[in-house]
Amino acid sequence: MKKIMVAxxxxxxxxxAVTRAAMLARQSGAAIALxxxxxxxxxxxxxxxxxxxxxxxxxxxxxxxxxxGDVTCETRVLMGSSFAGLVEAGAQLRPxxxxxxxxxxxxxxxxxxxxxxxxxxxxxDFPVLMVNAPAARDYxxxxxxxxxSAGSQDALQRAVALGIGADARNSVLHIFxxxxxxxxxxxxxxRDEQKRYLANxxxxxxxxxRAFLSDAKLEGIEPVVRYKVKATHDEIxxxxxxxxxxxxxxxxxxxxxxxxxxxxxVTEKVLRAAPVDIxxxxxxxxx
Length: 287
Known about the structure:
Layout (H helix, E strand, L loop, with lengths): L2 E5 L4 H17 L2 E8 L5 H25 L4 E7 L2 H12 L3 E5 L6 H5 L3 H8 L4 E4 L9 E5 L4 H13 L6 E8 L6 H4 L4 H26 L5 E6 L4 H11 L4 E5 L14 H8 L3 E5 L6
Family: Belongs to the universal stress protein A family.
Organism: Pelagivirga sediminicola
Protein name: Universal stress protein
């Protein structure tokens, strides 16, 4: 990892993102680009004042980062809406990772469009780390997730290559289904038959996950399987809590046109509810 872009709106939420980005930069030797977007849909005089004040705040933050460790840090102020400005900055800087804070949601707008974080994640083609918790220490447990697809294997390999959880416990969670235990069929099975069936499905899921990891040529990653009792995003959140993960990796799926603006993916549902940090890995460009 050579360059980390971190977005800030100078809130406490963004301060957590800046702190985490600085920690990751010191660990990896990456340079930091601090970015702030000024809303240009207001009178020109106000825009200019905000631009100057924002630049001064960025410069002070960058100096603090430099003094705290041997980290190269540049600053950039852009004009536009929050998410459009971040997308533009990403296109200019081409970071290996974008770090953002957990943004406030604004009720009706978010039902249809989503938070700045969610909208940015949909539109950029590089990994995004959303920081939900104070950066008090290095990560201790990075929990990746996988549906065993080729896309999730690629996302896992790219997440590992970033080195974010290199010194932490790493696991991969796979949520498996047990179709025969659905309400339509469960009445035809005794309780013991249900238990045996679920145990067999769990073993099959674990074998499939181990084969997946072997094929990905990744070592030192613990396989974890969990039966899908509720929705997938609920099971991911429960597993993160049970396994004491402090960062969860999710692969996002490529979408085009109007689909990019719609809510509904597992990633977005986890983003909205997770108390821990979330690393989103997009599909490769053209993939």
